Amino acid sequence: TNPVFTGIATTVFETMSRLAMAHGAVNLGQGFPDVDGPVDIRQAAADALLQGPNQYPPMLGIPDLRQAVAEANRRFYGLEVDPQTEVMVTSGATEALADCIFALVSPGDEVVLIEPLYDCYLPLVKQAGGIPVRVRVTPPNWSLDAEALKAAFSDKTKAVLINNPMNPTAKVFSDEELELVASLCRQYDAYAICDEVYEHLVFDGHRHTPLMTLDGMRERTVRIGSAGKTFSLTGWKVGYVTGPAALMDPIAKAHQWVTFTTPPHLQMAVAYGLRKDDSYYDGLSQDLAAKRDRMAAGLAALGFSVLPCNATYFLTCGFEGLGLGRTDVEACETLVTAAGVAAVPVSAFYGSDAPEGYIRFCFCKQDAVIDEALARLSAFL
Ligand code: PMP
Ligand code: GLN
């Protein structure tokens, strides 16, 4: 069997969700909202399911969704994209990541990754035969060290894989950081694979800037979005990739052997969803920011050191002095078994030598659920 897949544990998200269920814990581990996304989008999917067609859609995605993705690129970022040749629909951002990595990375190519990293990145790069080169952002502000990033690039660099806004750190990369990444891509003629699934979950006047919009990046960047995140429908697994035609061609070849296509009724509903007006997108981030504030205030009052959170669904916290255990894994075990609250150890987002002092709580939950989790923590601590 393939050591890339046999040597590793089940994902931390699945593991924690199973433990949460087994212990009747409030699940603030795996990132998913506990209220389904807009009813009109779900109605659009239900209508399309009944009316059909329900047969294989085109491999690149139904034309209306590719058109809607192109429109969204123009509307939110001023990017001009050809829906025929520069957009592809996938079964979730996870599939998009696999397609992009398999298509753009050849054995022996180096891929620069920013750590902490989303859990599928390392296995996918390794499966492609790529050599991961990891650079860290460091708490509490998760800032990117320019010298470390420069040192990670070389003539062997084929691509950088960047998650912005970033899970689990809730960081939005600054303009300066993005310009540094772009300048290194230009200098070393590297591709950028941008995981931007949290593009619309950005708070407090922060703005998401796709790396693709920077000088010289349009022709070397692919950017990935997820309807799961944008519409609070994580189980749908509808993603989309935007990139220059020359890169989309091999990416589509990878896609044809991974899933080939994505259920048509979901694609139709996502096309409808992407065209929702600004009040939807503004409301989404405002609601989440209020939940972040609710949970951050509660955790801080209990003695957690809550790190800044400018985006995503996640709060990372230190737990020193709370008696939860020495490491983040111990702390999460204690919390799920004894306090009845599931969180995720941040060390799971590292390839090796992880810091062990941080845990991640997911806050895209109903207020009553957040309050229940805080009450359980308060009773336990
Ligand atoms: N990238 C990041 C950074 C994520 O957090 C997630 C999961 N939520 C994904 C990709 C996967 O998205 P999807 O569910 O659309 O496959
Ligand atoms: N992205 C989600 C998280 O970070 C998990 C998705 C999954 O379970 N694969 O929690």
Automatic annotation (TrEMBL):
Domain of life: Bacteria
Alphabetical list of SUPFAM superfamilies matching this protein: PLP-dependent transferases (SSF53383)
GO CC aspect terms: cytoplasm
Short name of one Pfam family: Aminotran_1_2
Residue stretches making up the Aminotransferase class I/classII large domain: 26-377
MF term (GO), any: kynurenine-oxoglutarate transaminase activity
Gene3D superfamilies: Aspartate Aminotransferase, domain 1, Type I PLP-dependent aspartate aminotransferase-like (Major domain)
Needed cofactors: pyridoxal 5'-phosphate
InterPro entries (UniProt xref): Aminotransferase_I/II_large (IPR004839), Kynurenine-oxoglutarate_AT (IPR051326), PyrdxlP-dep_Trfase (IPR015424), PyrdxlP-dep_Trfase_major (IPR015421), PyrdxlP-dep_Trfase_small (IPR015422)
Keyword Cell membrane: no
Keywords: Aminotransferase, Pyridoxal phosphate, Transferase
NCBIfam families cross-referenced by the UniProt entry: PRK08912.1 (NF006488)
Family: Belongs to the class-I pyridoxal-phosphate-dependent aminotransferase family.
Name of this protein: Aminotransferase class I/classII large domain-containing protein
UniProt source species: Roseibium aggregatum
